[in-house]
Amino acid sequence: MVKIAFDVDVLAKQMSITGMVRKVADWGYRYIEQSPHPRINPFYKHPLFSRECEQEYRKALKETGVEISSFIVVYRWSGPSEEERRMAVANWKKIVQVAAGMGVRVINTELSGDPNQAEICNGMWFRSMDELLPLFEKEGIRVEIQSHPYDFCELSDETVDMVKSYRSDNLTYVYSASHGFFYDKGKGDVRGMLKYSGDSLSHVLFADTLNQTLDCRYIVNPPWLNGRGKSDVAVHQHMAMGEGEVDFKGIFETLREMEFAKRTFKAGGDSIACVSYFGFPERMEKEARSARERIEKELPQ
User: Fold this and answer.
1) Within a 10 A sphere around the Cβ of 260, how many other Cβ atoms?
2) Which helix (H) or strand (E) holds 132?
3) What are phi and psi of 196, to 5 degrees?
4) Sign of the C-alpha dihedral, residues 113, 238, 48, 201?
5) Are residues 261 and 301 in contact, defined by beta-carbon separation less than 8 angstroms?
6) How would residue 232 be classed by pLDDT, with cut points 50, 70 and 90?
7) By the 8 A CB rule, do 28 and 294 touch?
8) Helix 51-64 vs helix 17-26: angle between axes, to the nearest 10 degrees?
9) Which pLDDT tens digit goes with each residue over 145-186?
10) Residues 6+ away with beta carbon under 8 Å from 181
11) First-last CA distance in the chain
């Protein structure tokens, strides 16, 4: 049965861990996706998670009945320097300990490379995966890979192929709806991308965005920032479903065809559908609830 989770990034920036967990429970969610948090799993840095932090988190989970479906971590395990890669591998080893200690069997992550050094980052990622996959398999952790805007690989199908190349039950794929226009260079063919991911698809992130490849969807100044290079930028959003240009009708229809909501994996258990809204915390009281209700309706269990 699919786990419907809420990514707490939008809450962690403005409230305590206890408040964050209680708010997710108030919105009717049973699961939290713990995105990078300054006290737990900060972006790029070594994991933290003190005894006091763990005690607070466990107490809040027990009081509310909420569970952690998954951690999100972002480490530079694809370099591009070997020093960055080694530090990222050390971070990975620690977060696996933290996750296992909390009974969390799923970690969602990114490739985390540099698009201007794609070849070296590709090689670094495979080097890191060769080193870490035995640990993931030993600890029973499902690691889910997503490509991301401004990464050494932004394409969905290519990332799926990288994941499938390992032929491991502990390595699967995440599809992020708000990244989808990067995934196929602006086509937005959600049906084709989801079907291509096939049995490797274990996790979908729900949020809307505009198609960055179309004229004036986003305006960045000075104009030359729009050319690929050292000063380049990649722009996308995580808005409420229906506010952008993502084909959510196609996403939900395809997920039903694939019986995504009924998937269970050898590592990490059930599939995950996560609400990944960021930009408007003042609207979450309404939008978080309505997103959960829509997913429950569109993906009946």
Assistant:
1) 22
2) helix 118-139
3) -65, -35
4) negative
5) yes
6) confident
7) no
8) 20
9) 999 999 999 999 999 999 999 999 999 999 999 999 999 999
10) 187, 188, 209, 210, 211, 212, 213, 236, 245, 246
11) 6
Domain boundaries of the chain, sorted by first residue: 3-210+237-298
Cα–Cα distance, 82 to 86 (Å, whole number): 6
Binning pLDDT at 50, 70 and 90, where does residue 226 land? low
Which secondary-structure segment (H or E) carries 285?
A: helix 284-298
Tokens 């932004």 belong to which residue? Answer: 154
Query: Which residues touch 122 (CB under 8 Å, ≥6 apart)?
Result: 78, 113, 152, 153
Residue 231's pLDDT is 59
Fold of 3-210+237-298: TIM Barrel (3.20.20)
Q: The pTM is what?
A: 0.96
Mean pLDDT of 35-46: 97
